[in-house]
Specification:
Layout (H helix, E strand, L loop, with lengths): L1 H18 L20 H6 L8 E13 L4 E8 L15 E7 L5 H4 L3 E16 L2 E16 L1 E4 L16 H6 L16 E4 L1
Parallel strand pairs: 3-5
Antiparallel strand pairs: 1-2, 1-4, 2-3, 4-5, 6-7
Amino acid sequence: MKCRHSLFAAALCAPLMLSGCAAIPRDIQGNNSPILQKNFNQIHMAPNLYTGQQVRLGGRVINVINLPKQTLLEIAVLPLNSAARPQLNKPYQGRLIARSDRFLDPVNYRNHLLTVLGTLSGSEMGKIGSAPYTFVRLNIQGIQLWQVSETQPPVAAWDYGIGPNWPLSWQNQHNSDLGWGWYPILQPETASVH
């Protein structure tokens, strides 16, 4: 009898627990290897050590180069969260060149956030401005573009009592900075990746 109650409770709780998990889009799921979402700094220090291994990396597309039979994306790499989305509040870790066998329109990719799944193919020398740089190379197997949405808490159009909208002359006469009562508290804008 206890077993039935446990199974029933597990069946009820499983959807609730799974709803909190962030799903990784199918195009960038990969083969679940342990290297899949490795720290880019480790890969950048020894790219030939990881050649042929599947990885998931993401960031902001800096440049798109269309060639006759392929497209190269220069990506400024950001760490990824558990849902494989670039983390906007983290510093960039470096750059990589991602190669696709199909045409990718620069309008759809340049300056956008994305996550790519692919196999590492070593490194190549290039330049960022006039400074030499070693780029990690990756052959793309899947791409996920992300949209950034900025949210700002609503600000009330009115206040109750004496607050920051009270006439400045009254505050000066009564040596009061803010007064009393309810007034909206402004919070900084936040951005999230969807």
